[in-house]
Amino acid sequence: DLPCEKYEYQAEVSRLMDLIVHSLYSNKEVFLRELVSNASDALDKLRFLSVTEPDLIKDAVDLDIRIQTDKDNGVITITDSGIGMTRQELVDCLGTIAQSGTAKFLKALKDSKDAGVDSNLIGQFGVGFYSAFLVSEKVVVSTKSPKSDKQYVWEGKANASSYTIREETDPEKLLKRGTRLTLYLKRDDKGFAHPERIQNLVKNYSQFVQFPIYTWQEKGFTKEVEIDEDPAEGEKKGENTDVEKKKKTKKVVERYWDWELANETQPIWLRNPKDVTTEDYNEFYKKTFNEYLDPLASSHFTTEGEVEFRSILFVPATKKDDIVNLKTKNIRLYVKRVFISDDFDGELFPRYLSFVKGVVDSNDLPLNVSREILQESRIVRIMRNRLVRKAFDMILGISLSDNKDNYDRFWENFGKNLKLGCIEDHANHKRIAPLLRFVSSQSEEELISLDEYVENMKPEQKDIYYIAADSLTSARNAPFLERLLQKDYEVLFLVDPMDEVAVTNLKSYKDKNFVDISKEDLDLGDKNEGKEEVKQEFSQTCDWIKKRLGDKVASVQISNRLSTSPCVLVSGKFGWSANMERLMKAQTL
Ligand code: ADP
Ligand code: MG
């Protein structure tokens, strides 16, 4: 068989290890979170595969994670009974950085250089397996995949450019299945090998891991032991030593070592919401999604009846990527508590709501569910409706809360998503519209809602007026405004490029139409007294102007929409507004 072989790391790996060690220096303990999460992933993968290949778990080894410490020698071992790795997988997974956690880390580092994010934040990203070298001078990974008859040992040292792989030959170290990591701690980091320290770290970092995590702890119990009376004393007193001895007892502490469960394995979404605190939800959210800020809102619910599922949804306080990111991995789908995938967001939420994070656990989907099944499933359609409704309830909750900053923050991050929703999800217009915010002629600084606009409407005012412009200044100075301001009508200033598209898709709010004040035939309900005469009087002038301008304008008309400006350029009733035209041009350029 193959002997111990030496491999060079992919070039980026050495650089990455360097970066990790330097940028996380003050946050070293994340290594445990990373290694436990890998163990948990490995158990998830095994459980998932065993659904279709029950033979994989025929060995009847429990699915768990065990952490043992040797404080005298500064050694930690982390053993999982998960999917393990073949020889080739060891090379692919631990010698290259194609893997997700580390790739995310690199991106975060790059972004943090651009944006000046402080290095503590980086600790919140998955940094993966190499974080073991934050505290270890040597790492040994012994692993047995069900796909292979052999167990292999990967061995790497800090600051090295190569690692080795050999077959495990020591019969004492053979695993039925899974992976054992042995960390030989650096001199200054040996403190991590204290059993209580590890127990605390596990409690802190891994309380939401779905598999039991045991740590090896010293325990003690007191017991009473009998002690013989000193026979010499008896003799002194001249008593017969053969008579029944008086029994005396004393308490002693018996010490022994045993596995102790360190985490709670009941998933938080299975608990009764009454028993879960906001802090619990926030912690769960931060741990599960590698977030550093509490969510703006959360919603924990169960649906019964036609389709049964449980879910906890969150609205993040920060925006990670573009307005819609197709590979968000924001929704973790479970079937009967088995983690299935975080790749199905698109099937469970429309893409404009892709920022919503959470877990969904269904009892009605098959364990071998695939994207294709999800797309066709009636159950999923019902789930999707429920999830979307809950997401809107959550957002509405933020908007109604006393803490105004929260909604401002939400709007700043995800306002564009809701505008996109106006375009893509007509069925939910009723839910989206009350959440929209605008500036207006009467509120240039503070955003207003459509409800506030409607409340502020004049008794005789029928429509909701807006003007789209590329800036507040040009909106404010538009001649179209004159008559409306004179009448004290409020006009929405649509200054975000997406505002106008959103509003034209909505068409109306509470039976009031959105009306673009820059379009021809704006009807302000004025009486047309004398207009005909004026029209007559100036008809020649209009003809003359039209002739001079030729094709540049469609027509030249008399209007009563101005009060001080002599003339204004308006858009045709069915044409694009000037703003839209600007947008379309910008897109085709
Ligand atoms: P990520 O977990 O984001 O993929 P890591 O650097 O943490 O990145 O891990 C790299 C890869 O190594 C994992 O994707 C997995 O394939 C493999 N791996 C790490 N630890 C284990 C383990 N305990 N059991 C099986 N595979 C593992
Ligand atoms: Mg990982």
TrEMBL record:
MF (Gene Ontology): ATP binding; ATP hydrolysis activity; ATP-dependent protein folding chaperone; unfolded protein binding
Keywords assigned by UniProt, alphabetized: ATP-binding, Chaperone, Nucleotide-binding, Stress response, Transit peptide
Binding site for ATP: E34, N38, D80, M85, S100, G101, Q124, F125, G126, V127, G128, F129, T179, R371
GO CC, one annotated term: cytoplasm
Key word Nucleotide-binding present: yes
Protein family according to the UniProt entry: Belongs to the heat shock protein 90 family.
Name listed for the protein in its UniProt record: Heat shock protein 90-6, mitochondrial-like
Organism: Iris pallida (Sweet iris)
Shown chain mapped onto the complete sequence: 98 to 686 of 800
